[in-house]
């Protein structure tokens, strides 16, 4: 009869310590009409010829059966033949069934292993489970329908495991392909940033020289347009450079004690000079006991400037962008909130991805860096997330259409950065 040990379900169809003839016969009949199941190879190892013949008679109608009269012979057949299920008697002279199945588990872990024994010694069965990773065991004398049922269910498990391995292999291949594409994208960003940097620098210098000349009004207007668009290109190139650095070997941080109010004051002065044509209020609130943050001041300023600039660009005139700092458990939370147009729910998941289209079509951009509705390359939030991650922090967003957005950076007070945080 079929048995269970210690409450462990060795056969997933067994609900008790025995399998009734009626129940087994019903399942066998249910399988009898199936002809689409591919034949499998069963290796049977037993030192008694009569037992080998009995197993062969029970299984040969549906399966290819290999016979071995000892553990060593069974190992030789296993090395030479592809096998799905192994059935072994426990009591054999040269090598016990438990020892044999343990060897099989190491050589072919994907096989389904079944132990036949004339004893009900619990320690023997536990050893078989632990050492040989036995799927099921049957005590002698066994009924043919019981063995057939166990083998059928074993094949189901074997096929499920093969399918799992196949899907896992496909997933690994897909992940490897995604990594290669990410690396290629990083190399493209690096190449573009390098190749475009020098000619753009020459162009900007030439435009500055022209601006110093006495030009007709019509030419001056064209020059202003050229400078504005060149400045937009320079900002995009700077983002590509930052993205290339974050996407290759991670950002290298030079940590110092950063005072957030002073960092905001310098950033606020810079933004106000660029907001001359916008009617957007910038406000900030810092608690008096706000501690310093162990961070790279340059990269932290880059991340904060990106969040505030995004908020300004998507807030119409008359709106407000606020920065609020709060102390959490061992960290500081910086929340940038705006009263702008918000983000559609379907875009929240992709908003931090490089070249995200969540901010709109970049080809429909406006040249002003802080103009309402101005678009970038879709790299700013991806870079910001990489910066925050490199500091060991997190970045989250809460937004609703026409109700504004709130981006919150949570930064640990002390250095807990993750080495090599990258843009994926």
Summarize the structure in short.
With 424 residues, this protein is an alpha/beta fold. 47% of the residues lie in helices and 16% in strands.
Keywords for this entry:
424 residues, alpha/beta, five-stranded mixed beta sheet, elongated
Structural overview:
With 424 residues, the protein is of the alpha/beta class. The chain is built from ten helices and twelve strands. Helix 5 (122-132) links the parallel strand 4 (112-117) and strand 5 (136-139). The chain starts with 20 loop residues before the first helix and ends in a 12-residue tail after the last strand. The chain has helices at residues 21-32, 49-59, 71-80, 97-107, 122-132, 144-211, 217-248, 260-274, 297-313, 380-390, and strands spanning 41-45, 64-68, 85-89, 112-117, 136-139, 256-258, 281-285, 293-295, 320-328, 331-338, 394-399, 405-412. Helix 4 (97-107) packs parallel to helix 5 and helix 8 (260-274) crosses helix 9 (297-313).
